[in-house]
Amino acid sequence: LGGNNFLHLLMSSSSSSFFIPNFEIGEALCRLLYRELPLENTTNKRMYEVFLSFRGEDTPASFVSHLHTSLRNAGIIVFKDDESLRRGDEISESLLRAIEQSECSVVVFSRNYAESGRCMKELEKIMECHRTTGLVVVPVFYDVNPWEVRHQTGEFGKGFEKLEKRILTECALRAWYRQFGIISAEELGKLWRLGIKEADEVRMRETLREAASIAGHVVPNFRNERKTIKNIVENVTHLLDKTELLIAQWE
Q: Ranges for the TIR domain (predicted)?
């Protein structure tokens, strides 16, 4: 019986087998049982169990493909973006909704992950949901040190600097075009920081620090990927089980 039906049966039954001498005690018992039983209403259930965030051109296709397949073979519903539909740094509304409708996100940090404005927008949305809706985040550091991601240093930091320069260039171009309609390379150098929102850079750095501070999996490119993927899948499965238990306890 579902929670509602069980509660109704106990409170309305005239059968001697369900006789409860004290109505208040009976009501308290019913509420306790109702809380412990699974709810029939599944309208709040999220569409995906895992959202997979990665930079395809920077991560071996075999690793992401095997990770995706292994998660699905474990019975996990995974959202993996179609790389062929990606266009520059833009991120679609459907992708943002997919993040919101996921219970967990596996973020595969690679050397040039932060060079992609699109990946950074994904990560900002993922961490926003982590803070506001309890989205579980599992970082995977593929051929990159967590320290480099946390502090934007080394090869990872170089990729982030490229994104910063691209943003600054775009902001300068927009500002110059709005003012004069034309721009030269010389003037662009003078206006390098014109129009840049310092808060954007600070926010992106803080997002990386926050995400890279979560316990995750370090994957050197020479390690046995099969064993690592197995560990990731086991970790995700365990976290999803804990998430479902927590939801059941509080709903």
A: 46-199
Residue 122 annotated to the active site: yes
Cα–Cα dist 94/92, whole Å:
5
User: Letter for the amino acid at 11?
Assistant: M
DSSP assigned state of 43: T
Task: Decide if 114 contacts 167 (C-beta within 8 A).
Answer: no
The per-residue pLDDT for 251 is 41
Contacts of 155 (CB under 8 A, 6+ apart): 111, 112, 144, 148
Q: Which is nearest to 3 in space by CA: 35, 28, 25, 29?
A: 35
Among the options 49, 103, 115, 122, which is catalytic?
122
The pLDDT assigned to 72 comes to 94
Own/partner pairs, 28-33, CB within 8 angstroms, 24+ separation: 30/6, 31/7, 33/3, 33/6, 33/7
Which residue, chain included where needed, has tokens 């990729």? 159
pLDDT score, position 117: 85
DSSP 3-state assignment of 52? strand
Per-residue pLDDT band for 220 (boundaries 50, 70, 90) equals confident
Full 3-state SS string of 219-248: ECCCCCHHHHHHHHHHHHHHHHHHHHHHHH
Q: How confident is the model at residue 104 (pLDDT cuts 50, 70, 90)?
A: very high
The amino acid present at 55, given as its one-letter code, is R
| Torsion angle of the four alpha carbons 58, 227, 77, 251, in this order, in degrees rounded to the nearest 10 | -120
Cβ distance 122 to 194 under 8 Å?
A: no
Q: Give residue 187's pLDDT band: very low, low, confident or very high (50, 70, 90).
A: low
Question: What are the tokens at 27?
Answer: 């009501």
Tens digit of each residue's pLDDT (9 = 90 or more) over 228-247: 999 999 999 999 985 554 44
